[in-house]
Amino acid sequence: MLPFDPHSPERTTTKAAFYSLEEEKTFALPLPELHGKVVCGLSFGWLALMDEAAAVTLLNPFTGNRVALPPADKSIAEASSKSVAVTDGDGGRRWVLQHSSGDASPVTLDKMRDVFFRGIVFSTAPNNFGDGCVAMAVLADSSEVAFCRAGDKAPWTLIETNVECCVSSVVHCQDRFVAIGCLGEISIISRNIAVDDAQPRPARPVSSLPEPAEMCHRSYLQVNGQLHLVGVAMQAFHGEWPFGRHAVVYKCDLTGETTPVWSMVTEASDFALFVSKDFNMGFGGASVSKIKRNCIYLSEPMYSDHGEDSDHSPEIVDIATGTSDEISYPITMEGSEALCWIRPNLWT
């Protein structure tokens, strides 16, 4: 999915462009539902969208199906040490951020993920009513996460993960949510969270990846029932510029009773990994026509920093050799908007 303009003049003209790796062509879909919203998650072919009122909607861009989630409230922002207040005006419900100086500033669309939900993942693809789907949210800057049940009017529930600093990513793996801290530790959240009226116990950290600080970017995904990490490692030598960077892959088996241990993956002969860098998440899948196995598909280059002059050139990295190539497509894009991989879901 390529960047779109959420501020297009008219709702009816809002479109999203997609590039198909298999067909090697781009196509556009009219998606007025994207107008005035920011993408804050993607799972099972569905997008999680948030507007300036902090209302959250799940959207399947290929079928048009939608499911509403409860809106964010003050407790979500406060969990990230953000003081906010809600205002109601001619433009509808909006949020303002209250600073320690006493000043206040509006929480505009481009700042919503920095105040409320950084990312949202689902336990399963929601149906038209959301039955059975649990959503888990990474907050802006917190060791807590929040969950809700799609289609339920109950507000988001906060859970303490006990990670040392803040949660950077959440993955649904083996019927459980796994929260990953920014220092690399993982915290497994009880399976009972999906049960009605369950009282979740505080999650406990399980293990850390050795030397995570050497990675300038990390993305997490579930492949074949195992938690995987795709990282971009830096190699800095005295007096050398630019720094050397290379992609690495680790996996962690969560099925055993002993403490899970990360091990390096040097070959993924039967699948490919797709990583959306801005969302710290991705997915894996069996290689099909024109999609190379044993490779990492990065939504943007390893050196991309999402600045004003971000390079929107997807990159493919060979896991075995470490070599990489750009993926060319017939559209030139500029700006800081993020790209993301999405696996079409045509059934829900």
From TrEMBL:
Pfam family, one: Beta-prop_KIB1-4
Ranges where the KIB1-4 beta-propeller domain occurs: 18-305
Top-level taxon: Eukaryota
Protein's UniProt name: KIB1-4 beta-propeller domain-containing protein
